[in-house]
Amino acid sequence: MRILVIIFVVLVACAFVLVVNARWVDSQTRPAKARDGGQILEAINIRANVRVEGRGQPIVLIHGFGAAMNWWDEITPELANGHRVIRMDLIGHGGTEAPAAGYSIEKQAELVSAILNKLGLDRITIVGHSMGGEVATALAEIRPDRIERMILIDSPPTAGTTFTLATEAYLQPFLGEFLSNFRSDRIICRGLAQGFAPGFSIPEKFIADFKRLTYTAFRSAHEESIAYRKSKAPYERIAALQPVPPLLAVFGTQDAIVPPAHAKLFERVRGASVAMIEGVGHSPMVESPVKVLALIKAFLQPES
User: Fold this and answer.
1) 10, 30, 77, 135: which one has the fewest Cβ atoms less than 10 Å from its Cβ?
2) Phi/psi at 275 (5° precision)
3) What residues contact residue 286 under an 8 Å CB cut-off, 6+ apart?
4) Is the backbone peptide bond immediately before 243 cis, with ω within 30 degrees of 0?
5) Of the candidates 66, 61, 30, 32, which has an alpha carbon nearest to the alpha carbon of residue 49?
6) What is the spatial distance between Cα 260 and Cα 281, in angstroms, rounded to a whole number?
7) 40 burial class (0-12, 13-18, 19+ CB within 10 angstroms)?
8) Burial level of 173, CB count in 10 A (0-12/13-18/19+)?
9) What pTM, to 2 d.p., does this model score?
10) DSSP structure string for the chain
11) pLDDT at residue 172, rounded to an integer
12) How many CB atoms are located within 10 Å of the residue 292 CB?
């Protein structure tokens, strides 16, 4: 009997510790800080890290879940040779502030739209990677007249995505908050590896980007991404736009997060084209920037 009492007390104590830790972790916020060559702009009561480069027709680059604007470093210089390239960190990511709440895809799109207003930009080409493609889609739903062209890179067309067991555990309430106290560079690197083809060397700057995420930002952004896709499939959202913008969907054939076969769903969008890049994973603009640049440039060529 005494052993049972001891076990009960231990379990109650552990539960109490988990609850207290969860509340402490979930209460954490982070202020904005300019980084990666950006500057802080305020819009819709959010202080966002924004970087503008080059001259010409505007191209907006939206990073994915757990990333930051520097995931576009390999293709931005070439794009900026003939375009005005706008990059920004999404809410909770990179140098943009991480509030206690407010991570919906629609809210992220509102921030992008407000930043574009501040910069005096109207018609744009928007490029979204992974969750950034959902933000691009939501922006098109808010202001379809603003979208000249749309490029989605390994952005899920439906709710279906796959993460490692470790990532899934990290996303669980209480357990995730507890595990967040023990994230090392090595553990973060293992988690990021699913975003690339096997054997790809994870840049240290991406590990630093992940460390900027509060636990609330990480889990909330993930949950809001799933909620947006479950509410209505992104490819159906794009197909319903008036007008439907020219669309290019780029996918890596070794994507471990979004099944590459799902890329064909974007072909159901009127006038859309799909390009597969062999041998790369979920992040082609990092893994194969030359091929991605070639696809973007060809897509942006004016019709003869």
Assistant:
1) 10
2) -125, 130
3) 71, 74, 196, 203
4) yes
5) 32
6) 9
7) middle
8) exposed
9) 0.92
10) -HHHHHHHHHHHHHHHHHHHHHHHHHT--B-----TT-EEEEETTEEEEEEEE-SSEEEEEE--TT--GGGGTTTHHHHTTTEEEEEEPPTTSTTS-B-SS---HHHHHHHHHHHHHHTT--SEEEEEETHHHHHHHHHHHH-GGGEEEEEEES--SSS-----HHHHHHTSTTHHHHHGGG--HHHHHHHHGGGS-TTPPPPHHHHHHHHT--HHHHHHHHHHHHHHHHHS-HHHHHHT-SSPPPEEEEEETT-SSS-GGGGGGGGGSTT-EEEEETT--S-HHHH-HHHHHHHHHHHHSPP-
11) 86
12) 25
CA distance 48 to 39: 8
What does the alpha-carbon distance between residue 88 and residue 63 come to, in Å, rounded to a whole number?
Answer: 8
Residue 254, Cβ density class (10 Å: 0-12 exposed, 13-18 middle, ≥19 buried)? middle
User: Given the structure tokens 């895809």, which residue do they identify?
Assistant: 105
- Give the number of other CB atoms < 10 A from CB of residue 23: 10
pLDDT tens digits along 142-178: 999 999 999 999 999 999 888 888 888 888 887 878 7
Instruction: Write out residues in the chain with pLDDT < 50, as ranges.
Output: 8-10, 16, 304
Residues in contact with 117: Cβ distance below 8 Å, sequence separation at least 6, in sequence order: 43
Q: Contact 92/221 with Cβ under 8 angstroms?
A: yes
Give the tokens for residue 178: 């507890």
Degrees to nearest 5, angle at CA 176 with 173 and 177: 90
pLDDT in tens, 35-80: 999 999 999 999 999 999 999 999 999 999 999 999 999 999 999 9
Bridge-based pairing state of the strands 273-277 and 247-252: parallel
The answer to whether the CB of 300 falls within 8 A of the CB of 269 is no
Check residue 288 and give its pLDDT.
98
Range 156-165 burial, b when 16+ CB lie within 10 A, else e: bbbeebeeee
